[in-house]
Amino acid sequence: MYSELEKTEAIDLAEQAAAMLSLLPAVMRNLFQMDDDLATELPLAQLRVCSILREGPRPMSILSREMGVSLPAMTQIADRLERSRLVKRVSEGPDRRVRCLRLTPHGEHLMHRRDEEHKQSAQAVLEHLSPRARSEMLKSLDALLQACFAAKNRKSRDEAPAAEKVGA
User: Fold this and answer.
1) Do 74 and 64 contact (CB within 8 A), yes or no?
2) Does the pLDDT value for residue 7 go beyond 70?
């Protein structure tokens, strides 16, 4: 049986989760609401692939898993990106049969430009916060990210040790 305090904490946690789920998308929409030529030209799936490829070439099979799409769907996305000259299929590593996608110089340039526009947008927003508020916000976002990792690890291990609280 749960005590009244445990029930109140569970309700508070549920309310906080609902507030977070409402606030995060609103922040992202407002933060990056700009004239993003690339985002208006490319479907979201293609934009996501280009963002992933900023980290380096990836085999199609890994990309399809990261994107949560089938390999045939990933092939269609890659075909469209290749026709737009944003990516190129290349052989990487010792097994030349493994085809990877890599951003072309044109794709890298467009993604870099988009990153710079996002950075400028973020700076414009941060100007409205005090230095202390900016510092606290960054610490809170880092704590949230660490909590995401902890929750993901906990789910994969399927155990719940209470000592793994982030920010406690």
Assistant:
1) yes
2) no
Q: Which SS3 state, helix, strand or coil, does residue 103 take?
A: strand
Q: Which CATH architecture has domain 11-126?
A: Orthogonal Bundle (1.10)
> What is the value of pTM for the model shown?
0.67
Residue with tokens 């994969």: 156
Q: For the chain, what are the domain ranges?
A: 11-126
Report how far apart, in Å, the C-alpha atoms of 10 and of each of 32, 46, 59 are: 33, 39, 43
Q: Is the pLDDT of residue 131 over 90?
A: yes
Strands 58-59 and 99-103: antiparallel
pLDDT bin (cut points 50, 70, 90) of residue 160 is very low
Q: How many CB atoms lie within 10 A of CB 77?
A: 22
